[in-house]
Structure formats: C-alpha cells, structure tokens
Specification:
With 297 residues, this protein is α+β, with helices and mostly antiparallel strands. The chain contains seven helices and eight strands; from the N terminus they run ααααααββββββββα. The strands form two sheets. It has a four-stranded antiparallel sheet, with no helix packed on it. The protein has a four-stranded antiparallel sheet with strand order 2-3-4-5, with no helix packed on it.
Length: 297
C-alpha cells in the first residue's frame, strides 16, 4: 500500500481520511455555516476552488499524488462515498437545524467528499481539454464527454455554493392591506423588494367539507414599477423579479372565510446555473446516443 502506482485501496483510504477529517471538524467547530458564504464570499470561494484545481493540474507531473487525483482509481472510491452519503441523506429526515445525518448539506464529511469529487472532476475535464485534438472523430468523442463532465461540475458547485444565497421566507397577507415584510425560519423580519396585497382568498371543498383547492388572488407591486394582478395556488407559483411566490397556508379555523393568506417566497439566484449544468448533461447524453447510434449503423 502507498507504493506506486496507487490503486483503489489508496483511493478509498483518501476518501476515508476526508470523512475522518470532516468528523473532527464537525466535533470541534460544528456544522458548516453556509450563512457565512453569502455573495460575494461564495464567488470568491468558487474562484479559489478553480485556482486550486488549476494548480493541482499544473503540478501533476511533479507530484505523483496529484496525478493520482485525476485517475479513475481515485474517482471511483470518491463516487462510492458520495453515493453512500447521498443515499443516507435520502433515507433520513433533513431539517435546517438538524444534527449530523439530519442536516447532511451542512455535515462536514458530506461537504468534503463532494468538494473532493469536484476537484477530481476538474482534473479530468482539464486533462481532456488539453488532450483534445481538432478532428471530427475526436470531437465526436470529446464533446459528449465534456458536456457531461462540465455539466456535472457546474451543477455540483452551483448547487453547493448557491445554497448560501437561497432565501425561503413566509409572508402573511391580510385582505385589503399591502404587505412588504416577510419572516425567516428564525422569525426574523425581512423587508422585501415587492409588496403583496391579498384581494380574495379562494377555497373549493369536497362534499365532506375538506379542502380540494385553495388559492389567493393577489396584487403585486415591485420597486421596478410592475403592478401585477394574479392568482397563486399550491404547486402553481408566480415568479416576479427573481422571487417565486407559492400558496402556503391560511386561517384553518375560518376556512373559506379566511381573511389572511400565508405565502412562501423563494429566491435562488444560482438555480439557473444548476439548470444549465443539468441541461448540459442531458445534451451530452443525447450526443452520446446519436453518435453511438450512427457508429453502430
């Protein structure tokens, strides 16, 4: 072990070492504080990660361990750890203030493993770009590969770093009274760039009186001068100036006569980058299917 060339054992040991380091960080400093990574800090961190990836790539021929990071023998164990941790996240209830496995997005071992996966992806992408030869045969092979891997890298880094800028707020709108204040999950008041006035609360019920549909007719005023009359209901949000507005709740005691409506306002400025990464992966898959199909023919 630890004799050149490194193999899968060394790859699993590196991943295991990151998990142990993550556990030590979790015990000593607590979970990752994503609130400290608001823009522009997350942009600076992203630039730092890209620089770190570039430095590793440039030094790979001088330091064998750095060269190993870009190999499949490092990638496969890292992906195994990432998949296992992701499955655990899917099987456990995730809470904003949960501990350890109940708040995986802030769990240091989870974060470190995904950072490691991103670094490996970066090495693989750079190596393919450097070795790419401008011929039709090679481009048919390289374009799907780069679309898949660049898309995964973009989606992974954007979803992680963009988590700090995502806002999920609640706004209680009273009929006939414009409201521009919303509440965080910690019940802190936030003044919004938009004002919402509830015009009418709508409820449709089944024969037994249970709610079948509830929605809110609202008027939205923005600082940019927009005046929007619309209806928002469950699973049918309205998007205004980067905010998605969802129907969330109402006065359950008053039912259809509710004089207020609870709306959820969500802003995720990094989400377009995540979608771009997903679309790139889909495009890569389509390219592989088309080019592979033509080759067989």
């Amino acid at each position: 072990m630890w004799t050149k060339p490194y193999g899968m054992k060394e790859g699993f040991l590196i991943g295991g070492g990151l998990i142990i380091a993550g556990l030590m960080l979790e015990l000593s400093s607590g979970p990752v504080d994503w609130d400290a990574f608001h823009w522009p800090i997350n942009g600076i961190v992203l630039a730092g990660v890209l620089t770190f990836i570039a430095i590793i790539f440039l030094l790979r021929k001088r330091v064998y361990g750095l060269q190993f990071i870009g190999s499949y023998k490092a990638a496969i164990p890292a992906l195994v750890y990432a998949v296992v941790l992701t499955i655990i996240m899917g099987l456990t209830r995730q809470e904003v203030n949960g501990t350890w496995l109940n708040n995986m997005l802030s769990f240091w071992p989870f974060v470190l493993i995904y950072v490691y996966v991103a670094v490996i992806l970066g090495q693989i992408i750079l190596r393919r770009i450097i070795n790419c030869q401008l011929s039709i045969v090679n481009l048919k092979r390289d374009i799907p590969f780069l679309l898949n891997h660049l898309g995964l890298f973009l989606a992974l880094t954007s979803a992680t770093l963009g988590n700090a800028d995502m806002q999920r707020l609640k706004m209680i709108t009273v009929k006939g009274e414009p409201e521009w204040r919303a509440l965080t999950s910690q019940q802190q008041i936030v003044e919004m760039p938009i004002a919402i006035e509830l015009k009418e609360f709508i409820m449709e019920t089944y024969d037994d009186g249970s709610p079948r549909r509830f929605a809110s007719d609202i008027q939205i005023l923005t600082k940019t001068g927009k005046n929007i009359q619309t209806t928002v209901e469950v699973n049918k949000p309205v998007e205004v100036d980067g905010w998605k507005i969802y129907q969330y709740g109402y006065d359950t005691q008053m039912g259809a006569m509710s004089q207020y409506s609870i709306l959820e306002l969500v802003s995720d400025p990094w989400l377009p980058l995540v979608y771009t990464g997903i679309y790139m992966m889909l495009a890569g898959a389509v390219c592989m299917f088309i080019l592979g199909g033509r080759k067989r023919v």
